[in-house]
Amino acid sequence: GDGTASVGQYKGVAHKAQLLFQSLLDAQGGVGGLPFDLGDLFEEAYLAGARVHNNRWGPATESK
Fold it and tell me: What's the N-to-C CA distance of the chain in angstroms?
């Protein structure tokens, strides 16, 4: 957070961070949007200013 809720008393360690969301889901909700060349995926994020990329491409699973 940027400290707004605490009138500036508390700020997060990455209060100026921005997020970029990318989806690999196709119309059926599967991972059909994965490009053949992953560089295409990473380049889009890089050109948008991203310098950290975190991925989770696993199948949907139940959790308890």
Answer: 30
Distance of alpha carbon 3 from the chain centroid: 23
- What are the distances in angstroms from CA 49 to CA 12, 20, 24? 20, 9, 19
Structure tokens at 41: 């995926």
**Helix or strand or coil: residue 23?**
coil
Yes or no: say if 30 and 7 are a contact pair by the CB < 8 Å rule.
no
pTM above the 0.85 mark? Answer: no
The per-residue pLDDT for range 5-24, each reduced to its tens digit, is 899 898 888 878 888 988 88
